[in-house]
Amino acid sequence: MVVVVDVITFSTAVSVAVDRGCTxxxxxxxxxxARLLADRVGASLAVARSQVDASHPYSLSPATxxxxxxxAAIVLPSPNGSALAAELAGGNATVVxxxxxxxxxxxxxxxxxxxxxxxxxxxxxxxxxxxDPALEDLIGxxxxxxxxxxRRRSPEAMAAAAAYLSARRxxxxxxxxxxxxxxEQSSKGYAEEMEWASALNVSQVVPVLRAGVFRGER
Length: 218
Prior knowledge:
10 helices, three-stranded parallel beta sheet, alpha/beta
């Protein structure tokens, strides 16, 4: 099992969408290819946040997906979490989208599944193609790892769990707001997304990728 964690904002957006009864197809950050996929499967295409309008109401912003009607099919591209999930779709592992809002539910799901669990903190992909660690993804991964209750953990997993527990004591919303990613989102006018990203264990629905589509399971 592989849990893809992209707290700001892919995994959080997927969690909100499947809570609404929607299905989500992950896709790399390639608008033209994503549009072709959406047209082919009869789905709505999530666009860049600055492009949201009446014709294209969905984006990576969880707030836009919180109003999606049940049963809506959405293609949701992103350069980080969605691209990773799409790449993992053809493998043998069960792929799950994890974040703070569904951390406990994902951990329970993983415990029931058994076997090895890899929690993948997506990080930030920059324009030059470099990937940097992202504190919010480390914390989100740690929340899931803490809930797995496993004695055998890699040193990286132990560090992630410790980061989560520290951030929870400090305040998850405060930590995310003060992080590099949080400050960047605030500077772009998207500070309200930290409310969605920092909400802990508010969802009992687990987004599971089957046949290239995330659907909610329990």
